[in-house]
Amino acid sequence: MAEADRLLELLARASATRLLVVGDAMLDHYVFGDASRLSPEAPVPVVRVERDVFRPGGAANTAVNVRALGATAELAAVVGDDDHGRRLRSLLAEEGVEVDGLIVAPDRPTTWKERVLARQQQLLRLDRETDGELDALAETELLGRFEEGLARADGVILSDYGKGAVTAGLAAEVIRRTAEAAKIVCVDPKENHFPLYRNATSLTPNHYEAATAAGIAERDDPTLERTGAALLEMLGSQSVLITWGERGMVLFSADGSVDRIPTRAREVYDVAGAGDTVVATFAAALAAGGSHLAAAQLANFAASVVVAKVGTATASPEEIEQAVKQYYEENAS
After folding, report:
1. Which of 78, 166, 248, 323 could bridge to 160 as Cys pair (CB 3.0-4.6 Å)?
2. Exposed, middle or buried, 157 (CB in 10 Å: 0-12/13-18/19+)?
3. Across residues 71-95, what is the average pLDDT?
4. Considering only CA atoms, which of 280, 326, 312 is closest in space to residue 30?
5. Helix 136-150 vs helix 168-180: angle between axes, to the nearest 10 degrees?
6. Annotated catalytic residue 276
7. Containing structural domain, residue 6
8. What is the dihedral of CA 169, 175, 181, 185, to 10 degrees?
């Protein structure tokens, strides 16, 4: 149980950190209902709506995941001057996320994603958004909120969903100023933005994002190794943690080491938002002084918790602790 004890000790320290999340905030709207017949108007199911659920999404969900760990979370992001932005701000406050870093851009709507589900199966998703880059005034204001939050934070997460908040200028300044403050910055990347993340501490792409950014067609394990090495050379980062679905994760480090971490998930119901959980846990563990490998292992256990839930979800310290203990007890030699 020595390894389990080390991970649980790191979990306790990670839960005491303070992280600043910068990026694209969204509002997720889930419409739950039942579908038992087809419409007479078109060959589509008729969903009898039973309930609506609103949750923070994107960078906002990353901040909620940080808070769920017990850590302090502050969000610097952009919302519109609309009901969705006000709802998102209220939901974040209810979750205990600090929202002083949110700015309002009157010319942009709050990104809103609506999913229709029947009997736990997603039938449709509607996206309402503007993904053009922030104007210079909004970018300057967001950087100001970032600077204020950085002074209080132990580490930073750059959560890029390609909705315009993470501009080239903002990414460069976030990474530069965080490094100058001798703090970690982890990036949850967008595949076409990788050149913006040079010199970040670490990135947590999924295998598709990593392969696309590296320009390498993913086929097998050797292919992934070339992808990881190419990204490290491109970015100059200390590590790249690639998530690989049911195969788990692979951690590529600047010293040339490659660590494969098998998935710990027992059941998989929904992978939505799992990347937010991974980067939140990984960054909190690094900010707490954990090694990149230990942080990745802890993030892997956190991911195993959230994929067993429907919709964007979080993992509490108690749930992660249970997953760690259960795995090591069952695999004790």
Report:
1. 166
2. buried
3. 97
4. 312
5. 20
6. yes
7. 2-35+53-330
8. 140
Cβ atoms within 10 Å of 49's Cβ, excluding its own: 11
pTM metric for this prediction: 0.92
Q: What angle do CA 229, 297, 163 make, to 5 degrees?
A: 65
- Count of the separate structural domains present in the chain: 1
Q: What is the CATH number of the domain that holds 184?
A: 3.40.1190.20
Q: What CA–CA distance (Å, rounded) separates 186 from 193?
A: 14
Q: How far is CA 8 from CA 5, 63, 64, 315, 327, in A?
A: 5, 21, 21, 14, 13
Structure tokens at 50: 């039973």
- Report residue 76: phi and psi, to 5°: -115, 110
24, 28, 154, 276: which is the annotated catalytic residue?
Answer: 276
How far apart, in whole angstroms, are the C-alpha atoms of residue 52 and residue 33?
9
CB-neighbour burial class of residue 259 (10 A; exposed 0-12, middle 13-18, buried 19+): middle
What type of residue sits at position 39?
A: S
The answer to whether residue 198 sits within a structural domain is: yes
Count of CB atoms within 10 A of residue 108's CB? 23
Query: Is 48 part of any domain?
Result: no
13-52 residue pLDDT tens: 999 999 999 999 999 999 999 998 999 999 999 999 999 9
Q: How far apart are CA 10 and CA 186, in angstroms?
A: 18
Running DSSP on this structure, what letter comes out for residue 107? T
